[in-house]
Automatic annotation (TrEMBL):
This is histone deacetylase. Residues 453-465 have a biased composition (Basic residues). It comes from Coprinopsis cinerea (strain Okayama-7 / 130 / ATCC MYA-4618 / FGSC 9003) (Inky cap fungus). It holds the Pfam family Hist_deacetyl. Keywords: Chromatin regulator, Hydrolase, Nucleus, Repressor, Transcription, Transcription regulation. Its EC number is 3.5.1.98. Residues 427-465, 529-557 are annotated as: Disordered. One of its GO terms (cellular component) is Rpd3L-Expanded complex. The keyword Transcription applies. SUPFAM superfamilies: Arginase/deacetylase.
Amino acid sequence: MSKRKVAYFYDPCGLTNIAADVGSYTYGLGHPMKPHRIRVTHDLVTAYDMLDQMHVLRPTRATAETMTKFHTDEYVHFLNRVTPETAEELTYHGTRFLVGEDNPAFEGVFEFCSISAGGSIGAAQRIASGAADIAINWAGGLHHAKKREASGFCYINDIVLGILELLRIYPRVLYIDIDCHHGDGVEEAFYTTDRVMTCSFHKFGEYFPGTGTQEDRGRGKGKGYAVNVPLKDGITDESFKSVFEPVISKILEVFKPSAVVLQCGADSLAGDKLGCFNLTMYGHAHCTQFLRKHNIPLILLGGGGYTVKNVARTWTYETACALGIENDIDVNLPWNPYFEWFGPRYRLEVAENNMDDLNIKEGSLDKVRINALEQLRELTPAPSVQLQDVPRDSVGKHLGFGIDDGQPRDDLDERLAQHARYIYNLQESAEAPSSDSEEGSSDSDDSSASHWNRQRSRRIGTGKKRMSLLTNQYYDIPHEYGFSPHDYHGHLSKTTRRRFFQSGSRWDENVEQVINDRMQSVNGYPRHSLSATMERGGSWGDRGGEDDDWDGDVSMH
Ligand SMILES: [Zn+2]
């Protein structure tokens, strides 16, 4: 396979420098999202001697101003100054910006976001300049972050910021999301444009974030340009491939993207703590291999992934796929600082388990594939995507801001920012479906307007309900936005966020229970503590030690 120029973004002193500050960049003890997995991945990539085969770049950290190209000034300002101590007050007791338990205001949260976003923006620039064919940022892929609010462990949407950067150069960008959860934040951002096609493969049904049906296809000019592939528990490599390949092939044919962003969320792997799919490392990496083969400028991003060892294995393998050396590397892991945790097999593999593939069992997979392909067939020919080249100085025009007057790059930045705001204003001011909207057509007993409003409120997140990624349950936000915090004494939930930061504290017991239940149903055995694992010699016996949690990872260094 031919060579590709690969750029790899990694910040050696930021979120991963556990040695410098043990408390930095952890979401809190017991929280399943562990930024530490980026370091474990990096150490494994290093151990496989891949670093000297690619351009290793330290990302320029994204500034607050850069973040406001998508997010509101108010939200970015909040994120820039919030601390664990001030979170309660600055979030108006958990009713704004950081709602619910998923997104704690951990120490250094803004810096963490600036590294993640800086990497994805840098990746886009590297691709756009032609310096790289493939750019990798495993610290990115935080697809749930919303314009004015954190969601599902994501605070700043590095993906949207990266795609906005690509749109300066490329006429059409394809976003593909193989995280177990719907890529709602990115879909939402580009819901009304035909310059970005989003395609998300995800579990749907009583599962976070609760969006991503095949009825959700985009709106206005963007109608048809949001593709959703809702799946059920237990999807295998074979099933996944049988829908991924035809759908993506069709998209490449009809949309002809000039660049592709692939979110490689690793919670779709078998045995993930919060996921419910049954993909092996090879099945997951097949998506990367498939896109590399097409030789379109490609960005690989991280995302979810809560069984840390398997995340590290898979992203390491996918780095090898980007380089085209996956067949040359040893499946027996080289020595690395985390070697002992990869036992007892010490191999670069994520095996499937014996859960049922409900997609096959209930016959839904064929239907989903047919629907998606039908949607894509209706797209051709799409007049506005037939332009082969969009020179930089006419980006504004193609974003619908009239004739470009050739002003310099900074002005274009501003226009892109305006465009993102414009899209949101459009969506938020919509009270009823437009005549060409699909919303409502499938609902028999609702007026289309109320159906649309319900969809919209879920999608845009302006309603009072939110779903938690941790529990997959809807919950109410206790009070209207914008109330005075003085009005709110005595209504605080008994589980305040601050306790994450008390040393030695455990997290929410309900959350622990949910994770245990999930592990039980996925793997047939519950999660165990790290200390219990260590007492047994770090082994699960014949089960391969695939799922111990890394809550103890902070104390390892
Ligand atoms: Zn996820």
